[in-house]
Design goal:
The complex is a heterotrimer of chains A (127), B (653) and C (177). Chain A has helices at residues 5-24, 31-39, 58-72, 77-88, 103-126. By secondary structure, chain A is mainly alpha-helical. Chain B is built from 19 helices and eleven strands. Chain C is of the alpha/beta class and 177 residues long. Chain C has a six-stranded mixed sheet. A two-stranded antiparallel ribbon of chain C has the order 2-3. In chain C, strand 7 and strand 8 form a beta hairpin. Chain C starts with a helix and ends with a helix. The chains are: A mainly alpha (127), B alpha+beta (653), C alpha/beta (177). Chains in contact: A-B, A-C, B-C. The A-C interface holds A 44-48, 55, 57-60, 62, 87-89, 91-92 and C 32-37, 136-142, 145, 160.
Amino acid sequence: MKILGSFRLWLVAVLAVGVVAFVATPSASTWQARAAHLETLVKCPSCQDLSVAQSNATSSLAVRHEIVTMVKAGDNDTQILTTIERAYGSSVLLSPSVGGLGVLLWAAPLAVVMMAGAIGWRLRRRR
Amino acid sequence: MIVSWLGRIALYLAFVGCLGGVVAQARTIRRGKASAALLWSLVALVGIAGAVGVMQWALITHNFSLAYVAENNATFTPLLYSISGMWSALEGSLLLWSLILGALVVAVVWRYRRENTDSVVAWATLILFVVAGFFLLLMIGPADPFLHNPAHVLQGAGPNALLQDNPLVAIHPPLLYAGFVGFSVPFAFAMAMLITGRVQERWPLEQRHWTVIAWGALSVGIVLGSWWSYQVLGWGGFWGWDPVENAALLPWLTATAYIHSVIVQDRRGLFRVWNLSLAIATFAFTILGTFFTRSGVLQSVHAFSSSTLGPVLITFFFLTVGLGVGLIAWRGDALRTPVGVDHPLSREGLFVANNIIFVGFAFVVLLGTVFPLLYQAINGTQVTVGTPYFAAVAAPAGIFLLALMALAPVVSWRTVDGPTVWRRLRVTAWSAVAVTALLLVAGVHHWPVLVAVFLAVGAAGSALRTLKGVLVAARRRGDWWEAWRAPSTAGMVVHLGIVILAIGIVVSTSYTTRTEVTLASGQRTVVAGQVIGFNGFHQVATTLEHQTQLVVSVDGAGLRPAITTFNGRSSQAVGTPAINSNLLRDVYITFDAVGGTGAASGAQVQSNVPAGSVVLGVTVEPLLAWLWIGGLLVGIGSALSLGRRRHREEVVA
Amino acid sequence: MRRSISLIAIVALVLVGGLAVLLATRQPLSATSVQSPLLGKQAPAFAGQELDGGSFSLARERGNIVVLNFWASWCTPCKEEAPNLSTLAWQEKHAHRHVVVVGVVFNDSLASARAFERYYGSLYPSISDPQGTIAFHYGVTSPPTTFVINAKGVVAATLIGPASQRQLQQVVARVAQ
């Protein structure tokens, strides 16, 4: 397939915009950003499925306070989540940890992608 | 007592209608003579309509001799909520489902009345009678809506208060059910094709109208549900990946795949196995959905109370899937086509990718929904699978789908001709880059948002290009009506709706600002560029309720978030959020607390806030209104498809 | 083609069969024990008017085990739980075991709450919490939520969701030790 000149130009433009976008994206290094991100991963203990970022219940405020304290103390994300899980039970994390059976949750989308690849490859071969 | 028996007799009549229909169809299949299917379907419909009528009459007249009315209605329940009370709990919801199904069976029998000796039609009708009979059997047996209430109660328990303050309760469930029930038709025909072995025929194309209408109803129903949540729940969210929400999403996903995949069968006779499987899967998912909602097995704010229906529904689900899969395996040879997909990047190839993404995503959502059950069964402890997981898998799926929407309309069938595709795509492609660059310059530095916008402009561009082609052709012919009826018009309008919806979702979830502000009367503050001002209290008292409103201004517009207490006598504080909405952003304000000793308002008192001041919860969500606009466009597009011209005659493979 | 269809068919059947068995064998939801921030702490004091007259004060119940249940008439799992709580109240009253069951209804209208109480034959008093202050102090957002407070006034257990009869008996027995 011949790659046209105008297409090449367009690709360059996309790449340029992409690089600028990637470089300009602020990283989540401020403690507020980290805390905000972690808050979306923890369920409010007394709610059904709201995260502590969304709920203003007292238990939610308590957890938010703990997260902020731990982030400021310099713990990394995994440590914080593990501490909270130990304090509030395994069902307080909104996304199960990858260890153990949780690996199934992430293996499934991967399997779909692999199957898509396999089907695409078989279609190519059939030509 | 009489009311109870009247209702029951109506149900028995409906069941007799279904049974008669099954027997009549069986005889047609055996002997090839036309049956009285229409008569039997009418008997069934009359029966169900009668049952619904009895229930509605009991609800409207607050007749507490029916246990269902006593539990879901009270003497002070307004008319609209008495009517909608029929589907606010389990047994009654089955009445609504059966009513729609009964009407659908009559419609199908009527539509194919001239071909009712045709074996596919006969089998499909028989299967529809069986499905209707199943739901009736549920009501005759374990989920009896007409259970007599032996106690003489003067007052009912009243409907769920969450369900009686928004008129959407009268629209959202019926639309959803119309969608779910509508998918019984492609299912019945798919099974009929497999049973009779006539799998090379064009029945799926015949079905497309039914399917698209059902799909449209389901789509609008889901969007309305999100809108309702948004207005009521108080935290500005609209989708929680709750098990019952997921249960409605699953059939929508496979139905969308089906609608697209059938196009390929229309053009080139391919994808027969895909299409049959998708039709069966969609119906199976609706049954699974009824299980999640009614079994009490998963926690959900939408769930009805738990009941014994669980095992019955699961058995029906498994039978459906088992029979479907078995039949497809059995007919495997007949489903083979001599031609195949020529190239993965041809239009057929892109449709394969489409099918894989939708089915794969449905599989992952299903896994995430049942995973807590699986985990507890194996490990004994509880886990939650919530938004972080689902959003993480939805994002790439959404990205790929947007890309497909941009590419598929400009790619040719069978071949891959780079220069032609590029020629068609050039304007769109450059527009996408331009808009993205503009946003980058304007300060949007969140790369997921930029990628989404880039692809969304691409998808919109391709859709608009197709529509432009249709309009040009119509003008050349001098026939504008032709434009509405062109095969691609409705679909491209729906695509535009989806693009707008997608942008709304991506931007509002990425840039939401949520905060609490304390304001004294006359004071103002700025949240995310919006000027919020508090200007005092306003008390409103009616015979039914007392409302303390806050006079709030948002960018100059007036809002009245409030706290309402009912019945005057010191009780209950129900928060009423106030939303100021425009095309650019939604500002969502809740009356969270009041300062000093402010007991008069019924609001939460916060002691560290000075008297006369209030604490407002403020959420600013950009582009949120685009969700509803997109949803509206999807609905309009689906309605447009009713006039869709059928494509050219059958292509011989 | 035929072989791959059969293979996919078998895999699909096994997966769906497994799913069906898993789902069919699940029990309807009951309450989960949660780690509320109040565990081990003194239960916030409160007092209030009972729905059918009379007054209640937590301080007066020192020495008894208090099963404190937050509910609302619009909450569907509360309807399932109500008979279990009444049964518990009845059993404990007749066993003279110093266990008191009390409900707190919040975010609800008096009329609906009273109708609920009467309809479900409540055998224990419920206090109205019109401004949600008691619920706020206990950190309750979604009913049904049940706290079990031991004889010293310390929160010993928290359950979220509809508690089954067995769960209630077990948790009371555990706290009584």
